């Protein structure tokens, strides 16, 4: 496996993992829309953990969601998926660092190191998939309520936290795919067959008299 591919995949997975940690506490997963409003006195924005409001003077107030069971199902699922993404990314970084060729953690057994690096790539893929599902599901509910003319509550738009999550998912998926494919190509070995020289194969038996006469001709004998 190419060491450059390992380093690039590790950097992409690490950046994606850091961006997941930035997206989870970000308060702007959804922001109240100003579409159709002549005067806007306050702005409401929410994430997976709390709801905040700010007025025209710049004073903002936040409160955490009081009950987990009282939340919508997609918010609970998004929380679980984002936490799972952090866990997968942490183990993916650890496995990739151990399985890299420049690392001495697993000794000099390159086959074992390649398999460990491949596991790290799979974990990066799981991190990206969990993040992608979480932020896409959350954004789907925002757009569904926004375009529903019969929705009686406050309508929201997509916030910057979701864009950070999408970027994180893409980086993790690309890094995990590169690492997994590189490990798969590196472990596939060509079969080598023993060399057989061309030429006459001689047996251990001496040639018969008729064969000798045929080979040397009649003039060889007196």
UniProtKB/TrEMBL annotation:
It is found in: Cell junction, Tight junction; Cell membrane. Keywords: Cell junction, Cell membrane, Membrane, Tight junction, Transmembrane, Transmembrane helix. Its main location: other. It is a multi-pass membrane protein. PANTHER family: CLAUDIN. Claudins function as major constituents of the tight junction complexes that regulate the permeability of epithelia. This is Claudin. The gene is cldn15a.
């Amino acid at each position: 496996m190419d060491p450059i591919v390992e380093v690039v995949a590790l950097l992409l997975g690490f950046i994606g993992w850091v961006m997941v940690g930035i997206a989870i506490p970000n308060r702007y997963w959804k922001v109240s829309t100003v579409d159709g409003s002549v005067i806007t006195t306050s702005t409401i924005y929410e994430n997976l953990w709390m709801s905040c409001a700010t007025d025209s003077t710049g004073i903002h107030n936040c409160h955490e969601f009081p009950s987990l069971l009282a939340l919508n199902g997609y918010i609970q699922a998004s929380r679980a998926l984002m936490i799972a993404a952090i866990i997968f990314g942490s183990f993916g970084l650890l496995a990739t660092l151990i399985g890299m060729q420049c690392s001495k953690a697993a000794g000099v057994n390159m086959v074992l190191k390649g398999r460990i690096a491949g596991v790290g790539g799979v974990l990066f893929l799981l991190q990206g998939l969990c993040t992608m599902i979480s932020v896409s599901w959350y954004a789907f509910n925002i757009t569904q309520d926004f375009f529903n003319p019969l929705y009686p509550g406050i309508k929201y738009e997509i916030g910057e936290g979701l864009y950070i999550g999408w970027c994180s998912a893409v980086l993790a998926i690309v890094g995990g795919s590169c690492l997994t494919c590189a490990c798969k190509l590196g472990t596939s070995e060509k079969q080598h067959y023993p060399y057989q020289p061309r030429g006459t194969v001689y047996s251990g038996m001496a040639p018969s008299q008729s064969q000798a006469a045929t080979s040397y001709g009649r003039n060889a004998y007196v």
